Amino acid sequence: MSVSADFSSDIFNKDLPQSSLIIDRSNSRSGAKFHNVPRTLFDEIGREFNDHDDLFSWKALVRRLREENASLLSTIQSTRDELSQLLNDKTRLEDIVTSQEDTIHSLQNQLDSIMIEREQQKQQVEAAAAAVMTGNDEIDQYQLKKKEEDTEQLDGVLHQQEHARLNNLFERKAQLIEQQRDNEKEKDNISPLSPFPTYHTEQRQRERSEHNSSTDRLLVAVHEAQDGYAIERERRIELVFQKRYLMLVNKSLESCESQTLEYLKELGIPHNIRQPSLSPTSKWRACFNAVIAVYRLRKLISGENE
């Protein structure tokens, strides 16, 4: 094949073989022989020309406008329905929001009133606690003062009793010593030429032995009294120390309690007010009865020892 044959210019027309434009069943190269008719460039161009004519026809334009108008009307109707539904939803939501706002306002007012009442109750409780603490402090101070006075009075009474007992013993000792001196003087004054020397000698020995035994008993009693006085003094000193120690412990416990109440007050934690089980008068009577019982017991013990 020559170059001129490869690049020769041919004009396409319907007389060309194997063209779909040839419709002839007797021709083996006709397009009717194919199950799927092949389409050529002329077929596409012809279709475009035909479609172009249909596209710009007034009937097609009217039909297309009607379809678009119908679609627009349906769209407008659906939009209107949606808008009405949205308006109803908006009205319902506004009603719900209004009712919720009213409920919130009422709850807020109730909460404010409750907070005000709690603040007033808190102030009342704090005032009552302060009054109770002040009353307890006054009662404790009065009780401590009364205990100190009772203890001092009891110590004074016991000291007077012991002092009187020692004075009696010393007076008795002085009397016995004076009696011993008188006996010795009488012994010296007795004449050696007495008709009853043996009798006087036995009598003097008997009196001397009685005097010695009484002196020994007196000395033993004096020593016992001194030992008892020393023991009682040590016991009183120990009781005074214990009393002072308990007073310090009570003061420390009161300070700890007051600090704890202040911390609870700062933290906003309510605390129960301690209600005394006994009145101050009952406590004072109990302390006074205990002091009287101790005084009577000491008196009985001292009477038995004498």
UniProtKB/TrEMBL annotation:
Coiled-coil ranges from the UniProt annotation: 62-131
Entry keyword annotation includes Cytoplasm: yes
Compositional bias segments (type: Basic and acidic residues): 180-189, 201-214
Region named Disordered: 180-215
GO cellular component entries: cytoplasm; microtubule organizing center
Domain Pericentrin/AKAP-450 centrosomal targeting: 232-300
UniProt subcellular location: Cytoplasm, Cytoskeleton, Microtubule organizing center
Keywords: Coiled coil, Cytoplasm, Cytoskeleton, Phosphoprotein
Highest taxon of the lineage: Eukaryota
Keyword Phosphoprotein: yes
Record-given protein name: Pericentrin/AKAP-450 centrosomal targeting domain-containing protein
